[in-house]
Structures are given as C-alpha cells and as structure tokens.
Write a structure and sequence with these properties.
alpha/beta; 313 residues; Rossmann fold
Length: 313
C-alpha cells in the first residue's frame, strides 16, 4: 500500500514502513495536500502538517493517519472518525526528551543561564545581579501527571525537590504511589515554587492559566510550559511577568508558531522553538512506534495507540 509522509521523521521510521509498503515523502500543506492525498492508504505526520476536514474529505482511500508524537490537535479527529479513518500516535516516544527539556528550563530560570550567556557576549560581568536559587527543597507543582509529568518528577527527585501533582484522571492514592502529594490546581498555584504543565490542549485546558491564576501564584514562582501552546494565556503571562506578579517563565510552545510576540521584550522569560520532542533518540522512538501502528492498521489489525477508538466503536 502507499504511505505519504509530509513531515520530516527519523529514517528508521521510513525504513520500518518500507518493509511492507511504498513510502513517499513530500512536504505538502493545505490545498496541495488535499489534491495529493486521494492516492494514498496512510498518512504520517508530525506537528507541522494540519490534517483538516478539507484534506480528510479528499482522502478517498485513506485508512489511517499516524502522528509521530503524542499531540494530535493538528488532526481533525471527529472528521477522520466520520470517514472511518484510524488516528494513531506514539505516546512515550518523546517522554524523556520533553521531561529533560522541562528540567533544563527549570535550571535556566533558577540560575539565569540564558541571560548570563547573553550578558557575557555583550562583554558584561553581572555576577552580583545574577544570583540564583537552588532547586533543592523547592516545591514542584506538576499539572498533568501522565507519562511526561511522572518522568519530570522522577528526574526532579534527584535535585531534592518536593512534588505536588494534579491530574483529574488519577486517584489521590495513585498519585501518592509515586511519592507526590495529590493537590488541586489552586493549591499548586498558591504553594509551588516551580509549576510545570503537562496536559493536552482541549477546550477545558485552553487558557487554563490566565489572570486569576497568576494572581494566586507566589511572586517568587516560575512557570514552565513544554506541553501545548494556548494552555497559558500569553497576554496574561506578559502582564504577570512585566508587573512582577511572578519571577519568571519558560516556554517551548506557543498559541501561534513561529512565535514573534511581545513576550520577547522581557528578560525574565526563557524561550525554545518547540524543541520538546526534538532529540535524536526521541524522534527515532516516536517514528518507529508510529510506523508500527500504521502497519498494524494496514494489516487489518487493531492498533495499540488508537486515538479515536471511542468515536469509531
């Protein structure tokens, strides 16, 4: 069968698909993709390709859409389901990659590493200005205690941090099993020194952190988002950072990407350009898992990571 890949994925994933199928790589978007998709049985994407209703309506032979990663907000799940098209992903492939970047952002904020680097390049020596804090003994608040949230906590333990965790899908007993304190979002906002978000972007989580939430946070608190853009209200974050309501923030994801907004005017925020899953190891794992899921569907088998199962059964 024919598989179309429209975003760059690990060569190991392509090789896996080529064991059984014909694979074509083309960076197609929008109308160009809609015109091309009719001749393919499977589509493999990352976050760059937006699989809209228009594209799905033109996908006459499509049986499966595979997302080499975990987030599927770039795919119209309901439209795919109406056409009987499986949507699969690869949870776990980039878990450690995202968790490590989150910890990297925490360290960058605590020790002012990006600012110090810029300052040195400007031939300055601002040692007194850049006194930082330790992670040891600090309260870490994790909103979304799934695979990535748990992995962040696993690493943060080594720094001697304490963990408050919120997840509506986990019982307090289950959270306690991981050595974390079951907490409400409000408790985390009020008491955490570092807050990190690891939830999907849904109608419930869109702008979940906005003006009222920043008002609850400590003036010494830091917030990190390596999950999905839109969970933090960027306008509210700008006001909170500019007015000293919180100490700092770090973002890897944005409402609109590439990001060029006014947050870049501020010194107390750290940016990365959506690098969470962008490690060699993470891309290989995510690509191979996604390829395996696509192959299962094309073989007439039920996939392990079937995103729209609840809509198709």
């Amino acid at each position: 069968m024919k598989v179309l890949v429209t975003d760059e994925v690990a060569k190991e994933a392509i090789e896996k698909l080529e064991e059984k199928h014909e694979v074509v790589f083309k960076e197609l978007r929008g109308e160009a993709l809609a015109k091309e998709i009719g001749g393919y049985d499977a589509l493999m994407v990352r976050s760059g390709t937006k699989v809209t209703a228009n594209i799905i309506n033109e996908a006459k032979n499509l049986k499966v859409i595979g997302r080499a990663g975990i987030g599927v907000d770039n795919i119209d799940i309901e439209e795919a389901s109406r056409h009987g098209i499986y949507v699969v992903n690869s949870p776990g492939g980039s878990t450690h990659s995202v968790a490590e970047l989150t910890i990297g952002h925490m360290l960058s904020l605590a020790r002012h590493i990006p600012y110090a680097d810029r300052s040195m390049r400007e031939k300055k020596w601002e040692k007194k200005k850049l006194k930082g804090i330790e992670l040891q003994g600090k309260n870490l608040g994790i909103i979304g205690f799934g695979r990535i949230g748990k992995e962040v906590w696993k690493i943060a333990k080594a720094f001697g941090m304490k963990c408050m965790a919120y997840d509506p899908w986990l019982s307090p007993e289950k959270i306690k099993e991981y050595g974390a304190i079951p907490s409400s979002i409000e408790d985390i906002l009020k008491n955490a020194d570092f807050i990190t978000i690891h939830t999907p972007l849904t109608e419930e989580t869109r702008q979940m952190i906005s003006h009222p939430q920043f008002e609850l946070m400590k003036r010494s608190a830091y917030i990190i988002n390596c999950a999905r853009g839109g969970i933090i209200d960027e306008d509210a974050l700008y006001e909170a950072l500019k007015n000293g309501m919180i100490a700092g923030a770090a973002l890897d994801v944005y409402e609109n990407e590439p990001y060029t907004g006014r947050l870049t005017e501020l010194d107390n925020i750290v940016f990365t350009p959506h690098l969470g899953a962008s490690t060699k190891e993470g891309q290989i794992r995510a690509g191979i898992i996604c390829a395996e899921q696509i192959m299962k569907v094309l073989d007439g088998e039920e996939p392990d990571y079937w995103v729209n199962k609840h809509l198709m059964k």
